[in-house]
Amino acid sequence: MTESSWKVNGDRWSTDPMLSRWFDKIASTLEPDASRQISATDIERVSALLLVEIARADHDIDTTERAAILAAMEQASTLPETELREVVAEAFNEADSAVSLHEHVSIINSHFDKRNKLALVEQMWRVALADGSIDGHEEYTIRKLCDLIHIKHRDFMQAKLRVIGD
Predict the structure, then answer these.
(1) Which domains does the chain have, with CATH numbers?
(2) For 70, how many CA atoms within 13 A lie in the half-sphere containing its CB?
């Protein structure tokens, strides 16, 4: 194929429209549209999903962990209870099919200040402790999420101690 047979599709080079769409689809997953507006419901959905990830970490989600997720969301949400229950149910479904948490973590990083991130970390600890014990996998998952949302180890431990002390 000669260079003259290549055509420009936006800022991407392509030989045929199908290939171009395929590259655009890959690029959109790697580079989420920064211009997309994030709603309050999106933020609540992401928060619920991260709490579900904590509950799933020990491979045993019991009813107390489900109740802790719902209680955590009720505490921070302005949504009516029925909508909130739908957001939490969607988070459980999405967690089953999630391949990566990158998009979710980037939303937290771009829309939460440190105070909100620490409140989310405390809720993570509450979910982990809801069944009476903190599993090593749950603690590991919280630690990794804290790293990804730029929470220092000191703040991670202080949040844990506050929740255990409650």
Answers:
(1) 1-31 (no CATH), 40-165 (1.10.3680.10)
(2) 15
Evaluate whether 121 touches 138 at the Cβ level (below 8 Å).
no
Report pLDDT for 5: 41
CA gap 112, 100 in Å, rounded: 20
Q: How far apart are the first and last CA of the chain?
A: 69
- For the ranges 43-47, 124-128, 147-151, the lowest mean pLDDT is seen at 43-47
> For the segment 116-136, what is each residue's pLDDT rounded down to a tens digit?
999 999 999 999 999 999 999
DSSP letter, residue 62: -
Burial annotation 126-137 (CB, 10 A radius, 16+ → b, else e): bbbbbbeebbee
Contact by Cβ (8 Å): 148, 105 = yes
Q: In the chain, which ranges are continuous DSSP H helix?
A: 17-30, 40-56, 63-76, 81-97, 102-111, 114-129, 136-148, 153-165
Q: What is the dihedral of CA 13, 19, 25, 28, to 10 degrees?
A: -10
Q: Rounded distance, CA 140 to CA 143, Å?
A: 5
Cβ neighbors of 139 (< 8 A, separation 6 or more) are 128
